[in-house]
């Protein structure tokens, strides 16, 4: 059965300010408490919430799922996973679990999905970082292709042959994956 | 089969993804890749990155629109302390302060002997002095008020951090099942109506079919619903009732915990502290004991 909080997922997809505010009112206090008690600030908590919401957005776009727990609980778990990873990356320190962890999950699915969202967001961060390290020509070609243009359209725009565009795309992808592989975060990520 | 190193793999992968391999070459490449964990991960990274990057690019506008909204809402949440101040200390508080100051001045006038005869100049001077007194009195009041505001905000923040509506019982079947359904789906007004309706049904049947635990749950969940809806005094009344109705020490601790929170929400710190003190002494309070101790230490800071 669809959870009543599914409306918040739609709000995220449709950028519904009123419902977004409503869900933030439910979850932000808890997220802020957790972050502030774990070496973060209010601003960190707000940025973390944005990251979590984006990760959920992408996860739904990639593979829609049915929410089976309250949405605020789901966001909280995504935030917690993201923040724990962030702290490990920064300081390699443990995390204080707040007394506010009153959420309960009926099944493993929600927890697994929340973990998946956080993982996907980590992959995205690494990808964005390394994409920016590529030379401009490579970056442009890849981005245009990813934005929905077919390779022959990209080739026409860049005034290169289709065969060269295909070869170039593979080379650029190889460079990007190589850069990602060299990063210390690569080994911790699941692909 | 000779194992490829990663450099060789990248060379072959360019040809593979470029479509420059024959079917046999492609199959061999796939087989060689599958034989190594490291190369399989590289292959997966390549595919996932290509797939997810397309997702990011295609949704760029939507995500930018969301980020804009998110940042727009920031001032409502991250700087909410400022808003709380503005809302909480609007006209009524200032009217009360002004009334208090005026009262002090009036009392001073009554108890300060004045000369029988005074010239117009003396009267005028007196008025000026009074004006100065208002200014002088206003300053410490403002300081106290600032401290009060700060304390209020701390209490509100503390309450927001610790208050989580309790879950419904493990077995919600019985006369309150509708109420539990509404409560669990956060429809608190409907939950209250369902509790009231269940109560009136038992009365119309001519006998009180509520077991002690149902009586407790009716008061307890109605109180929690009221608290969530902002009817704090109603919640306090029913939670106090729940404490006395509780059929077990653990349920009593639950009710005491929320009663303390309701007092905290009402900014009745002393009673909240006393209630937490009683809860801590309950040997069957379970996890509520730790919660209470933690909250108590925050309140005693």
Overall geometry of chain B: elongated
Shape of chain A: globular
Distance between the termini of chain B: 70 Å
Largest sheet of chain B: none
The SSE string of chain B, one letter per element, is HHHHHHHHHHHHHH
Question: Tally the helices of chain A: what do you get?
Answer: 8
In CATH, the homologous superfamily of the largest domain in chain B goes by the name Tetratricopeptide repeat domain
Helix count of chain B? 14
Number of strands of chain B: 0
Which fold name corresponds to the CATH topology of the largest domain in chain B? Serine Threonine Protein Phosphatase 5, Tetratricopeptide repeat
Largest sheet of chain A: none
**Structural class by secondary-structure content of chain B:** mainly alpha
CATH-derived architecture of the largest domain in chain B: Alpha Horseshoe
Give start-end ranges of low-pLDDT stretches of chain A: none
| Oligomeric status | heterodimer
Task: Give the tally of structural domains of chain B.
Answer: 3
Structure description:
The complex is a heterodimer of chains A (191) and B (301). Chain A is mainly alpha-helical and 191 residues long. Helices cover 70% and strands 0% of the residues of chain A. Chain A folds into two domains: 116 residues; 57 residues, Arc Repressor Mutant, subunit A (Orthogonal Bundle), CATH 1.10.10. Chain A has eight helices and no strands. In chain A, α4 packs across α5. Chain A is globular, with a radius of gyration of 19 Å. Chain B is mainly α and 301 residues long. Chain B folds into three domains: 53 residues, no CATH class; 74 residues, no CATH class; 123 residues, Alpha Horseshoe (Serine Threonine Protein Phosphatase 5, Tetratricopeptide repeat). Helix content of chain B is 79%, strand content 0%. The longest helix of chain B has 43 residues. Chain B is elongated and about 105 Å long.
């Amino acid at each position: 059965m669809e959870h009543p909080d599914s409306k918040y997922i739609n709000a995220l997809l449709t950028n519904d300010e009123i419902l977004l505010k409503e869900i933030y009112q439910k979850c932000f206090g808890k997220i802020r408490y957790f972050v502030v008690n774990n070496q973060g600030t209010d601003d960190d908590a707000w940025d973390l919430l944005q990251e979590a919401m984006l990760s959920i957005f992408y996860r739904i776009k990639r593979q829609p799922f049915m929410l089976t727990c309250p949405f605020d609980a789901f966001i909280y778990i995504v935030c917690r996973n993201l923040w724990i990873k962030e702290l490990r990356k920064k300081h390699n320190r443990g995390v204080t679990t707040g007394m506010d962890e009153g959420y309960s999950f009926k099944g493993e699915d929600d927890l697994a999905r929340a973990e998946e969202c956080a993982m996907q967001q980590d992959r995205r961060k690494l990808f964005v970082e390394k994409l920016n390290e590529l030379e401009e020509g490579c970056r442009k070609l890849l981005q245009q292709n990813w934005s929905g243009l077919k390779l022959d359209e990209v080739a026409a725009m860049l005034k290169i042959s289709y065969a060269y565009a295909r070869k170039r795309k593979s080379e650029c992808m190889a460079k990007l994956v190589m850069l990602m592989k060299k990063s210390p975060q690569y080994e911790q990520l699941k692909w | 089969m000779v194992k490829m190193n990663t450099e060789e793999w990248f060379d072959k992968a360019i040809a593979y993804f470029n479509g420059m391999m024959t079917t046999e070459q492609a199959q061999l490449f796939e087989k060689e890749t599958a034989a190594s964990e490291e190369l399989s991960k590289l292959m997966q990274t390549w595919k996932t990155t290509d797939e997810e990057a397309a997702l990011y690019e295609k949704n760029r506008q939507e995500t930018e629109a969301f980020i804009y909204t998110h940042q727009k809402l920031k001032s409502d949440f991250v700087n909410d302390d400022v808003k709380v101040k503005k809302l909480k200390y609007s006209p009524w508080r200032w009217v009360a302060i002004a009334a208090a100051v005026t009262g002090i001045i009036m009392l001073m006038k009554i108890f300060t002997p004045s000369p029988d005869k005074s010239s117009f100049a003396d009267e005028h001077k007196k008025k000026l002095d009074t004006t100065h007194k208002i200014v002088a009195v206003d300053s410490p009041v403002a300081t106290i008020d600032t401290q009060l505001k700060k304390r209020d905000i701390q209490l509100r923040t503390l309450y927001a951090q610790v208050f989580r509506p309790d879950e419904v019982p493990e077995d919600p079947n019985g006369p309150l099942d509708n109420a539990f359904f509404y409560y669990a789906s956060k429809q608190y007004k409907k939950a209250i109506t369902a509790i009231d309706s269940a109560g009136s049904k038992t009365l119309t049947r001519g006998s009180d079919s509520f077991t002690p635990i149902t009586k407790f749950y009716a008061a307890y969940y109605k109180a929690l619903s009221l608290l969530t809806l902002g009817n704090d005094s109603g919640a306090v009344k029913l939670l106090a009732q729940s404490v006395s109705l509780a059929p077990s020490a653990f349920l009593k601790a639950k009710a005491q915990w929320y009663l303390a929170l309701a007092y905290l929400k009402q900014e009745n710190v002393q009673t909240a502290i006393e209630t937490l003190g009683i809860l801590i002494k309950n040997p069957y309070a379970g996890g509520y004991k730790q919660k209470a101790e933690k909250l108590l230490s925050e309140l005693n800071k």
